[in-house]
Amino acid sequence: MWGNKKGGSVKVETLIGQSTEIRGDIVFTGGLHLDGKVVGNVIAEGKENCVLIISDRGCIEGEVRVPVVILNGIVIGDVYATERVEFSNKGRVNGNVYYNMLEMAMGAEINGSLIHCENEKKLLEHQKQSKTEVVQDLPDEAEGQIPK
Q1: Contacts of 124 (CB under 8 A, 6+ apart)
Q2: Rounded to an integer, what is the distance from CA 87 to the centroid of its chain?
Q3: How confident is the model over 5-35, as pLDDT tens digits?
Q4: I need a surface site. Which of 4, 41, 88, 138 has the fewest CB within 10 A?
Q5: Is residue 60 situated within a structural domain?
Q6: With left for phi above 0 and alpha for psi between -120 and 50, is residue 94 left, alpha or beta?
């Protein structure tokens, strides 16, 4: 069930260990297995064959933008998955999940909205809309300080 999908497998090239905490954004290609903690965004640079595996000890405080996410740990932030998201029974998200295909085990938890996006174009429209809403909610004196 977890990661045993037809269509080939992705080689995990990067491992972030349990005792490691990274502060800052991570941009990767291929496979990334996270046992530690990331305070920042995790972004897949390649459009295809990119997978993020977050173990039950892994945690991300930031946005996740990866085609395939296999989640056993915690994400505090929005998840954008253009292909699929797989939640184990220990998977937790405090934020919105934008997905094309979703698989959840009993016990998984999402504290936010589930937004189905059939293709990447629709997903990008949601991203632009959320950025526009943030700028509109700012006070008038702060609006000129944020690049659009």
Answers
A1: none
A2: 12
A3: 444 567 888 999 999 999 999 999 999 999 9
A4: 4
A5: yes
A6: beta
Assess if residue 72 is contained within a domain.
Answer: yes
Has residue 3 been placed in a domain? no
Q: What is the pLDDT of residue 21?
A: 96
Identify the helix (H) or strand (E) that includes residue 125: helix 120-137
Structure tokens at 53: 């595996």
One-character DSSP codes across 54-121: E-TT-EEES-EE-SEEEESSEEES-EEEEEEEEE-TT-EEES-EEEEEEEE-TT-EE-S-EEE-SSHH
Q: How far apart are CA 89 and CA 72, in angstroms?
A: 7
Beta bridge partners of 128: none
By residue range, what is the domain housing residue 85? 12-138
Output the pTM of the full model: 0.76
The overall longest dimension of the chain from CA atoms, in Å, is 53
Cα 124 to Cα 38: distance, rounded to the nearest angstrom: 24
Establish if 38 belongs to a structural domain: yes
Distance CA 95, CA 121 (A): 21
Among the listed residues 20, 19, 49, 53, the one whose alpha carbon sits nearest the alpha carbon of residue 34: 53
